[in-house]
Amino acid sequence: MKLGVIGGAGLLGSTTAFCVGMRDVLEEIKLLDLKENVLEAHVMDMSQALLPVSKTKVTKADYEDLGDCDIILVTASLPERQVANRNEYLTGNLGVVTPICEKLKAVCKKDAILISATNPVDVFTYVYWKLLGWDKSKVLGFCVNDTLRFKWAIEEVTGKEFSKLDAMCIGEHGDGQVRLYNHVTYDGKPMEISQEERTAIEEATANWFRTWQQLDSKRTTGWTSGVMLADMIEAIATDSKAVIPVSVVMDGFKGYDHVAMGMPGVFSKEGVTKLIDVELTDEGKAQLDKTACKIEDMLKSIDM
Ligand SMILES: NC(=O)c1ccc[n+]([C@@H]2O[C@H](COP(=O)([O-])OP(=O)(O)OC[C@H]3O[C@@H](n4cnc5c(N)ncnc54)[C@H](O)[C@@H]3O)[C@@H](O)[C@H]2O)c1
């Protein structure tokens, strides 16, 4: 399969290209960005770096070169700044995403799969689906970092071994994420989390975002996101049927409509054709309802 990366000179576009390139699961990665010189430098550097470990080629692309790409990753965005939450990027990034949609619509294969990481992710997943007119199974938003951080916080608080933990976040990539405490397992068995531990886990995840923002590094989580995006791309390229939380357009799933949000999805070479219907507690369902209303309101605010 071939991957096109729009925003390929930026942190997330380039780290993802490198991480997935190292896995040797793609024929070619085509990088596209407005910053021509930085892009050229990444292509020159990465195409040599991958030679000892991978057959994946890395090339520089324009839109017309994306016609044979099976997967398109969009990480293009306005530069990072200090924000209270990711939704502050909405209006600015709408101006970035809308023209990209027009160009992709003109050049891409009809069965291409789009992955969007641009924040706010859930809103833009819906925007891409609406503007591109592609099947909803092929328009995917990147939100799995929340699940990774939930597992990290459980490890920090309980001292359990990360590799034996399983847990999941659904809902919004942002404050409206819903951590599914009733589905946490350790070594394949349900794991009890006390109220005290739960409070500490909530604090650890909230403090993580605050601390990151206070650094004002103008940097996103390029390493974490590069690794997790590479997981999604590898699952598609290898048709693995792996279950990964992903933002998708809801059309009646669990009673939600006119909104996109994170749900566990089964990844294949067709995209995400199946969602897993996780059981929610009354509290989880109430949280998810609130999140759906919030994302719907953001979509209304941009006339979607
Ligand atoms: N969903 C997540 O979990 C997650 C995680 C990390 C970052 N992000 C988001 O991903 C986005 C990218 O982050 P980053 O760290 O790579 O930012 P960055 O500033 O390093 O890179 C963005 C790149 O997009 C390019 N660009 C802007 N407009 C373009 C256009 N019209 N066409 C082509 N290229 C264009 C810029 O030149 C730049 O190279 C941000 O919106 C960030 O918030 C999401």
TrEMBL record:
This is L-lactate dehydrogenase. Pfam families: Ldh_1_C (PF02866), Ldh_1_N (PF00056). InterPro entries: L-lactate/malate_DH (IPR001557), Lactate/malate_DH_C (IPR022383), Lactate/malate_DH_N (IPR001236), Lactate_DH/Glyco_Ohase_4_C (IPR015955), NAD(P)-bd_dom_sf (IPR036291). It comes from the Bacteria. Residues 146-299 form the Lactate/malate dehydrogenase C-terminal domain. Belongs to the LDH/MDH superfamily. LDH family. Keywords: NAD, Oxidoreductase. The keyword Oxidoreductase applies. The keyword NAD applies. The lineage of its organism: Bacteria, Bacillati, Bacillota, Clostridia, Lachnospirales. Residues 1-141 form the Lactate/malate dehydrogenase N-terminal domain.
